[in-house]
Amino acid sequence: MASYKPVVVPAHPRLGERITQDTVYWQGYKTPVQIKEFGAVNKIDFSPVPPYNYAVTASSRIHIYGHYSQEPIKTFSRFKDAAYCATYRDDGNLLVAGSEEGSIRLFDISGKAPLRQFDGHTKPVHVVGFLSDKYRVFSGGDDYSSNLWDIPSATEIVSYSEHNDYVRCGCASKVNADVFITGSYDHTVKLFDARTKSSVMTIEHGQPVESVLLFPSGGLLVSAGGRYVKVWDVLKGGQLLVSLKNHHKTVTCLCLNSSGQRLLSGSLDRHVKIYSTTSYKVVHSFNYATSILSLALSPEDETIVVGMTNGVLNVKHRKPEERKEKSQKKRQPAYRTYVKGRTYMPKQEDFCVSKPVKRVLRKYDKLLKSFHSSKALDAVLEPPIRLYTPEVTVAVMQELHRRGTLRSALAGRDEKQINLLLTFVARRVIEPRFTPVLVTVADMITDIYQPVVGQSAIVDRQFLRLQEAIGKEIDYQEELLEVLGMMDTLFATFTKKRATYLEENKSNGLRPLEE
């Protein structure tokens, strides 16, 4: 009697994830460190100078964290209510922050008490930052105003009241010390010049603006609001270059990497998308546990810090590069030691002893070996196989069909089993690698259970799903045939043109040589 041969599961090519340089680069971070703050993290800002500490604004406190510290190394808590938007100066010595009570405080990193306090806003101040000359501070508040302050005298230089809603984001130009930008919930982004009494440019974003970002060159502006991230050309008067819609919920924060070649956006949909600044296509993405409010990258992209609505700070550090150190290891045997004797050919007088190989059969193979067709089909319809390796399920169905026992294995099932079987067929019948087998299975199921149609709402619903899936696939095939017909027509036209060109050459006196 011949031994049982296990079911052969055909190997189908899979479209795997394309591994790019960006994938390798952005996956080179360690397991994240989780730090719990007192409230939602509304701002994260890295110091521009070593050792690259970062300031985290949450609730009524500003915490300063070291590069690898999980506890704050310094805390600023001189706020009666919530603090907002703590931002470093370019030299890393000063820190400015807004507050819920409408005042702006300036701190020295080495001290605790505020050096200056700027009062002028009548409502909460959510946006503050330094101009590139280091001696002036801009701010934006819920009183619709955008102000400019002088640090040495602690006085207001100019106030702009051009927005019609809350001012919630802003940034300063690194090229021009007089230029800063604010974004508002009135759907506009305004560019201000401290030497003028009004804004010099207004850009309509179309959604409440949550974040703005100016490229280091000062020529490109990025605005985020709603589900959109839009890039504008400032030098062309605010011309829209590209509009990106890769998030499912509101985009809350923007960030550039150290080289300026990658743009990062965080959203309430729990994702951070990374775009190439040349093609503006998503090259990588991160997934987080809850909605994202703030995002920051350290210089050289060594650390990525994300603040979330539940007050959790997610910190990822880059893995250190593996250094090839010449260590004195124990000398291993040469390669020839391991392959010795593999190529030996037995001689005529040699006696060969073969070691029996024990073959372990899977559950469905054991059942097929015992001719239990129905139980073998049940075994491959279990969730681990049905969901993750559907090719095994289809291979067993094909083997049952080859044996002629597929109809008997499909018959005699209850409502739950029929529902499970129809769900699998309706989901996988449109896959080209499974279609030939599952179409036969669907025909048999329809023939067997046609008399009971109308007795169970669950089974009827699954039959309708199967009909809908096959109908859609037929429509797709018809559309593809139409496209193929159009392409054949175009190719035929090209062929005719080529023939006409040859005929013209012949008419010009070119004849084939006669023997």
TrEMBL record:
Function according to Swiss-Prot or TrEMBL: Ribosome biogenesis factor. Involved in nucleolar processing of pre-18S ribosomal RNA. Required for optimal pre-ribosomal RNA transcription by RNA polymerase I. Part of the small subunit (SSU) processome, first precursor of the small eukaryotic ribosomal subunit. During the assembly of the SSU processome in the nucleolus, many ribosome biogenesis factors, an RNA chaperone and ribosomal proteins associate with the nascent pre-rRNA and work in concert to generate RNA folding, modifications, rearrangements and cleavage as well as targeted degradation of pre-ribosomal RNA by the RNA exosome.
The entry's protein name is U3 small nucleolar RNA-associated protein 15 homolog
- Could you tell me which Pfam families the record lists for this protein? UTP15_C, WD40
Identify the SUPFAM superfamilies for this entry: WD40 repeat-like
- Per the record, the major location class is nucleus
Q: Which residues form the U3 small nucleolar RNA-associated protein 15 C-terminal domain?
A: 344-490
Alphabetic keyword roster: Nucleus, Repeat, rRNA processing, WD repeat
Which SMART domains does this one have? Answer: WD40
Question: Which top-rank group of organisms is this from?
Answer: Eukaryota
GO cellular component entries: nucleolus
- Cell compartments where the protein resides: Nucleus, Nucleolus
